[in-house]
Amino acid sequence: MNVMQSVKLDKVTANMGVGASGQALENAFKLLETLTGSTPVKTKARRREPAFKLRKGDEVGVKVTLRGEKARQFLSKALKARENRVPARGIDGAGNVAFGVKEYIDFPGAKYDPNIGMIGFDVCVTLSKAGRRISRRRIAPRRMPAKQWVNRGEAREFMEKEFGAVFEEEEQ
Q: Which of 10, 73, 158, 170 is deepest in the core (most CB within 10 A)?
């Protein structure tokens, strides 16, 4: 296989949308910090939503981005929390795989904390091929050819081979 066409794990992002600042946001921050071993950042509301009593700029969630070996370890644990089952609709056409963990106590090594309560989080996996930097670089960016994008089949094959993920179709 051509080295330039091989799929690799770019990053893993863990996200918790709380919806409001305060104690719930601090609990989410502590939880993500203990699960990932990295310091999360707080996310802010992009626009005003009167129905949810949100103003633009309010802190509404936390996220952490992991790369390299740390990302691989976290992803394998997150998949174990879901018993290696991922919904097939969680794959998009650009090489991203997303799924949610309903309760953090399912995560291997996590213990229940009564101060935090029962909350879950989302995991987004970004896959890429070699040469992706060409489209993202600051000086002289270029368009990548379509064969350098990770498609759904390649993303599915990579997750099944590397992490033993099982993609299940949703029943209507």
A: 158
